[in-house]
Amino acid sequence: MTSEQLVVHDADLPGMDPVTLYRVLALRVDVFVVEQNCVYRELDGREVDPTTRLLWIERDSEVLATLRLLRAADGSARIGRVATAMSARGQGLAAVLMHRALELTADVVVELHAQTYLVAWYERFGFTRAGADFLDDGILHTPMRRGR
């Protein structure tokens, strides 16, 4: 993939066009609901919060990877919904999004719930374990934190 073909975006909900939003949400459903066979409420209302940002990478109008960045009332941040299309895995796209999310949150504590098999991947970005593993929709997760 050449850099001129790769487009990295971040926006709040009003800053997104409806077709792109649809593609981001469809990717999340494809990965978390269909591929991982988890029946859960993917649309949880957090996108409408004015502090929420959606980050995504697209090439030729196809959304290849995405993540969601939430802000808490105390100023801390939470990264979630990190997903890469099956056809785009192994290209480092999620890492590009993580770096951008961490640039946007450089001055605050950032938390996430990693699927446990990905703990070492998140550790590459400075995250450390922040509690006991837990099951969420039948998938083992590990709470992690970066910062103070």
Question: Could you explain the architecture of this structure?
Answer:
The chain has 3 helices and 8 strands. With 148 residues, it is of the alpha+beta class. Strands 1, 2, 3, 4, 5, 6, 7 and 8 form an 8-stranded mixed β-sheet that branches. The longest helix is centred in the N-terminal third of the chain and has 18 residues, at 18-35. The mean pLDDT is 91.
Order of helices and strands: EHEEEHEHEEE
Largest β sheet strand count, sense and barrel closure: 8 strands, mixed
Q: Give the distance, in angstroms, between the N- and C-terminal Cα atoms.
A: 36 Å
The number of helical runs is: 3
Please tell me what the overall shape is.
globular
Rg for CA atoms = 15 Å
Which segments are poorly predicted (pLDDT under 50) over 5 or more consecutive residues? none
Mean pLDDT: 91
Which class of secondary structure composition applies to the elements?
A: alpha+beta
Percentage of residues in helical conformation: 10-25%
